[in-house]
Design a protein that fits this description.
Largest sheet of chain A: none
Radius of gyration of chain A: 23 Å
Strand order of the largest sheet of chain B: 1-37-36-35
Oligomer: heterodimer
Structural class of chain B: mainly beta
Strand content of chain A: under 5%
Largest interface: A-B, 39 and 61 residues
Number of strands of chain B: 37
Helix content of chain B: under 10%
Largest sheet of chain B: 4 strands, antiparallel
Order of helices and strands of chain A: HHHHHHH
Radius of gyration of chain B: 22 Å
Chain lengths: 187, 587
């Protein structure tokens, strides 16, 4: 009995562990979104993934990206040489191969910056799977996509709806009452 | 006490005759008289730039060049507002605290307003007004951080802005919001970061959004009726005077933001306000013409918003050299001639003195060590010497000016300046004007915008972007305004991102590495310093409580630096966000 119990316990324990590992490895969309937010991807690529010009230079448009999953993983791990795209792997350009380069091969001043926080290899895969599933290949951003990112508390998504649609949904959006300009009109 | 009562009585008279016939003014209520006499009110800091003239000079002198070595932390207060929103990971502090009768009114980056009782040698929170700013709506389109530069006082109200575009009136005693109105529209890329300027019952609002294709404006809200009474656009429409300085409809997205609090001259009833860069920032061929009134100083009638005169510093700007800086009003004799000057330290690296009675150029000189975009200013007009009024697109020094044919270029100063929003200070006792300097060059990459392209009003519209391959440092640079000559430079390892305070014998400044210090007003030698441990991106103030002088500064890195420009100061990458009020005193 003791042996049986022990064996059953082992099997149960092993299967539980497997289940936990399996769950962690699942390319879960919500956890990918969470990483996209907390690693500050939206800080440059925007919530839409469209990136574009800003004071930090132009971040890549992830909606239009042609990168494969493996290529995207390498860019997130290693950053982009000579740009503001950070390397999210702690071991980039060291133990972690990066575009065939070691740290010494990266030209002076061109090393990608460090990230807001480093990501584990599994987290990098998860966020890349989120981009692949929910961003890459998508057309113009929509109200629904925006609310999936920001929730419904903020007015940040309102500009993706028409005023009529907002009103129909009972959503109050602020209005500015503007006074006349004394300088307007021909002199 | 006698002075206080007299002032209050005068305030009552003024209130009953001019300002608000029905309002009951109580002791401590702020009137036009209170604000116009702020320079003589030793103990208090009542309006954003200390006085309407924008000098940020206090006559308080207990803390002076002889005693300053004994200055130490008296107390601190931990503020909130550090949370992120939109594209920003954290808020920061850029505010100028106001102090009246021992009570401080101070804002955090999201516009949270705190009333602190500073009696008894500590900061005690009496109330906090949380404006419940819509973080993501505003933070998504704030070019340069989660920032709020402070409050204004009027009657029994504290007047503030929020990043999401509101003007809020809070009861000074209770902390309750009395009313608010939407002034700016984040749906059009507009946000509010500056402190309101209150004059004669009007709250003057400037707008940010020059990187999002706004058409800029300055607006006046009547604090009695809560209604807007005028709105002056900084970009004339086609057919209006100045409208032909834009091609076609390019002015509609032409920028011209106004996000730094202006100044006011009571005798002429004139507001002086700086206007930001044209948009798109680096694609000047998109918008041929001088692009009025971008990169200009405007003089406006307070009652109507009518433009009295303008002076443009960088016509058809291709560098993001905006002229939002405060205009400091001083009366001095220049070359034997008594003049009413308007001083402005521009992003383009030049200090300007204008005759504020008519907008004429008096003198101009570089305050940075390295200027590459022009050979200098014309001695008569103050325009860059290469400026050609017959050209629609200016090239200035064509070897470095970003354009569609020079798509990568290093410019000096870089696009942060020169001098950014952090305010200057002016000491009337030695005629010296102190400028918080960013000694910089950066690299501009031009990516032309497409005319008529479909874009969201909440998208960046800048025609390229900067990167920062070169180290950026700073200085406190002094000018003798009677000659227009540089009279001293205290160099610093980091850019000046917080602004200055002048007292009779000292100049106070802070740095983004946490260094907070006092310089001798004449020699610019450093006499005292304290390491705050957090980035300083706010201007110091001084005031007196129960007869004792204090110096205060907000500590908590705000603004665009740590997100967009930190490559030029790599050691600052390790600075953590913070949100603390530091108050210093002698024993």
């Amino acid at each position: 009995v003791t042996r049986l119990h022990a064996a059953a316990g082992l099997i149960l324990g092993a299967s539980l562990s497997l289940a936990i590992i399996a769950r962690a490895q699942e390319p879960h969309d919500e956890s990918g979104l969470h990483i996209f937010k907390t690693a500050n991807c939206a800080g440059c690529h925007n919530w839409t993934g469209m990136g574009g010009g800003n004071y930090g230079g132009a971040a890549a448009n992830l909606r239009a990206t042609q990168l494969t999953r493996d290529q995207m993983i390498e860019v997130v791990r290693c950053g982009r040489v000579g740009t503001g795209m950070p390397h999210f792997s702690r071991r980039a350009y060291g133990d972690d191969a990066c575009f065939g380069m070691a740290a010494a091969d990266v030209p002076q001043g061109m090393m990608p910056p460090g990230p807001l926080r480093y990501l584990q290899p599994q987290e990098i895969e998860t966020v890349v799977d989120y981009v692949t599933a929910s961003v890459k290949g998508r057309g113009a951003p929509t109200f629904a996509e925006c609310q999936a990112f920001y929730g419904s508390e903020s007015r940040v998504c309102d500009s993706y709806e028409t005023p009529a649609q907002l009103a129909a949904a009972g959503h109050v959006h602020p209005h500015v009452d503007v006074a006349p300009d004394a300088n307007a009109g021909p002199k | 006490m006698a002075i206080f009562v007299t002032k209050t009585l005068r305030g009552l008279l003024l209130a009953s005759v001019v300002v608000a016939p029905c309002a009951a003014f109580a002791a401590g209520d702020v009137t036009q008289d209170t604000l116009q006499n702020a320079a003589n009110d030793q103990a208090n800091w009542l309006t954003h730039h200390h006085t309407y003239s924008g000098q940020r000079f206090s006559t308080l002198d207990q803390i002076n060049r002889d005693t300053v070595k004994g200055l130490h932390v008296a107390f601190t207060y931990q503020m909130g507002g550090i949370e992120g929103g939109g594209i920003w990971t954290h808020g920061g502090l850029e505010g100028t605290p106001l102090v009246q009768d021992g009570f401080m009114y101070v804002t955090d980056g999201w516009g949270g307003l705190y009333k602190l009782d500073l009696h008894d040698g500590r900061a005690k929170l009496l109330w906090k007004m949380d404006p419940k700013t819509d973080h993501d709506w505003a933070g998504q389109i704030a070019c340069c951080g989660i920032d709020n530069r402070g409050a204004a006082l009027w009657g029994d109200l504290v007047i503030t802005h929020t990043l999401d575009g509101r003007l809020i009136a809070t009861n000074k005693e209770t902390g309750k919001v009395e009313w608010f109105r939407q002034v700016a529209d984040p749906d059009k890329g507009e946000v509010l970061t500056g402190a309101p300027l209150v004059v004669k019952g009007l709250a003057i609002t400037g707008v940010a959004g020059g990187e999002f294709g706004i058409r800029g404006w300055i607006a006046a809200t009547d604090l009695n009726t809560h209604k807007e009474v005028w709105r002056t656009h900084t970009i004339p429409a086609p057919g209006e005077p100045g409208g032909n300085s834009w091609d076609g409809n390019t002015g509609a997205t032409g920028g011209g933001s106004t996000w730094v609090t202006g100044t006011y001259e009571p005798s002429s009833n004139t507001l002086f306000w700086g206007v930001g860069n044209p948009g798109p920032d680096w694609d000047s061929e998109f918008r041929p013409g001088d692009n009025l009134y971008t990169d200009s100083t405007l003089a406006l009638d307070l009652d109507t918003g009518k433009i009295k005169w303008y002076y443009q510093h960088t016509p058809n700007d291709a560098y993001d050299y905006d002229s939002v800086s405060e205009n400091v009003l001083v009366d001095v004799t220049v070359n034997g001639k008594p003049l009413h000057l308007d001083l402005e330290a521009d992003r383009n690296g030049f200090a300007y003195a204008l005759d504020r009675d008519n907008g004429r150029f008096v003198w101009g000189a570089p305050f940075v060590k390295k200027v590459t975009w022009t050979k200098g200013l014309d001695g008569e007009t103050g325009k860059p010497v290469e400026y050609d009024p017959h050209m629609r697109v200016q090239k200035y020094n064509a070897a470095v000016t970003p354009s569609r044919s020079l798509t990568e270029s290093i410019i000096c100063p870089g696009n942060m300046g020169g001098k950014n929003w952090p305010p200057t200070a002016y000491n009337p006792t030695n005629h010296t004007w102190y400028i918080p300097v960013i000694e910089s060059c950066n690299k501009i990459t031009v990516k032309p915008e497409t005319p008529g392209a479909k874009r969201s009003l909440r998208d960046w519209f800048i025609g390229g972007g900067p990167t920062n391959p070169e180290r950026i440092t700073g200085s406190v640079t002094a000018f003798d305004v009677t000659t227009g000559k540089e009279s001293g430079k205290h160099e610093t390892p980091w850019p000046l991102l917080g602004g200055l305070l002048a007292t009779p014998s000292l100049v106070f400044y802070g740095l983004p590495d946490g260094h907070f210090a006092a310089l001798d007003a004449n020699s610019l030698n450093e006499l005292w310093h304290f390491e705050t441990g957090g980035g300083v991106s706010a201007p110091p103030v001084t005031f007196q409580v129960d007869g004792k002088q204090y110096v205060a500064v907000l500590v908590g890195m705000g603004g665009a630096w740590d997100k967009w420009f930190v490559d030029s100061t790599p050691e600052l990458k390790t600075m953590n966000p913070s949100s603390t009020l530091y108050v210093f005193a002698l024993d």
